Amino acid sequence: MGNETFDESLLEILACPKCVGKLEYRAEEAVFLCHTCRLRYRIDDGIPVLLIDEAEAF
């Protein structure tokens, strides 16, 4: 956990599935954060889980 790396071009095109807003990548936590929706999307084995039903509020 926390060792995932992503290609910069991929980071530029990923968006929150709920609001289509920008996501913040936090490698140390292995998550993507949407500050607009206040949702945290986990990364499992290097694969972002961008499912609204699987997201956690923060």
Identify the notable features of this structure and list them briefly:
58 residues, mainly beta, N-terminal domain of TfIIb, 5-stranded antiparallel beta sheet, 1 helix, 5 strands, 29% strand
How far apart are the first and last residues' alpha carbons, in Å?
Answer: 19 Å
Estimated structural class = mainly beta
| The top level CATH class name | Mainly Beta
Rg result: 10 Å
Q: In one word, what is the shape?
A: globular
Q: Can you walk through the features of this model?
A:
The protein is mainly beta and 58 residues long. It has a single domain (8-57), classed as N-terminal domain of TfIIb (Single Sheet), CATH 2.20.25.10. The chain is 10% helix and 29% strand. The chain is built from one helix and five strands. Strands 1, 2, 3, 4 and 5 form a five-stranded antiparallel β-sheet that branches. Strand 3 (39-44) and strand 4 form a beta hairpin. The two termini are 19 Å apart. The mean pLDDT is 90.
